[in-house]
């Protein structure tokens, strides 16, 4: 029943479109008679005004909606058309565009579609249509995306704010992704058929959220500053999108954040020094972007970090020695950047370090002997640099020889 009412194909949308046309047609004769009466009452032109007669033109409206229909009538006509189609009618004329762009119309249109959908779910699950039951349904509903959730990213701002307030504001967790784009992997970045989406500013009104995961969504544009309003957030992942621009300063207000994953985007600019304000971070992934500048020394104060991945950016300068203060870190990736200098000897303090990836940089000097004394170290990757192995560092040598053998085997398998 619900799909028949509001899903594809939208049968009621077609029906109400015809009703709209019929109502408009009813107004045309009335308006035409008013024009005729107005012309009949015009005084005859005087002889000295005959030269101006060629400039006297009666203009009839090119669209029925350009008549002076009350805005409420226009809104009532279009309110029954499904939200996925109604915005197309904004192009009819300026008056229609103005009527369909108000928050009031967004509330009316969505209340006749979204609210009925939620009421249907409540009736099925709770045998009640009360407002409290609708709120409960919204709070505990499955976090998988609905058709309306998908439309949320493409609606005008008036629709986005109303939908966020009435439908999404009670949620504590959102985990959405596009399965088709996920199957495509990173190839979706070059796909012209992928639907365009932007992260709505209305997301800042979802202040109950503790977990926000929007991956493989083809999100474009910048990271909106309104995310700074989500003060209860502990997990934020916008990975595998097309987000661009610098990180907004408001993001550093999420002091309870534990997981921040912005990898595989097109973000640029420097990594803000205020990243140290996110003192509860345990996982920070900014890899596969276009970040520039040096790695902030303040990052060494994130003593709760277990994972730090800054690989495949355009970072320059030296590795800060303060990274050696990350005593709980087990995974460090600074590979595929433009880093220079040597490996700080303070890395020998990382007693829980298991993976150290520094390959494809411009680093020089001698590998610290202390790295060979890290008992939990399982992998070290240093290729593509100009680093020297210290004497009597058999453990480091064995790591490097093991890496060479693995790469040789991988290449031989790919050539078979």
Automatic annotation (TrEMBL):
SUPFAM superfamilies tied to this protein: F-box domain (SSF81383), L domain-like (SSF52058)
Single Gene Ontology BP annotation: post-embryonic development
This protein's UniProt keywords: Glycoprotein, Leucine-rich repeat, Membrane, Repeat, Signal, Transmembrane, Transmembrane helix
UniProt cross-references to InterPro entries, sorted A to Z: F-box-like_dom_sf (IPR036047), F-box_dom (IPR001810), Leu-rich_rpt (IPR001611), LRR_dom_sf (IPR032675), LRR_R13L4/SHOC2-like (IPR055414), PGIP (IPR051848)
Pfam assignment, any one: F-box
An example Gene Ontology CC term for this record: membrane
Residue span(s) of domain F-box: 63-108
Record flagged with keyword Nucleotide-binding: no
Segments passing through the bilayer: 12-30
Membrane protein topology class: Single-pass membrane protein
Presence of keyword Glycoprotein: yes
PANTHER family: POLYGALACTURONASE INHIBITOR 1 (PTHR48059), POLYGALACTURONASE INHIBITOR 1-RELATED (PTHR48059:SF4)
Protein's name in the database: F-box domain-containing protein
Lineage, highest ranks first: Eukaryota, Fungi, Fungi incertae sedis, Chytridiomycota, Chytridiomycota incertae sedis
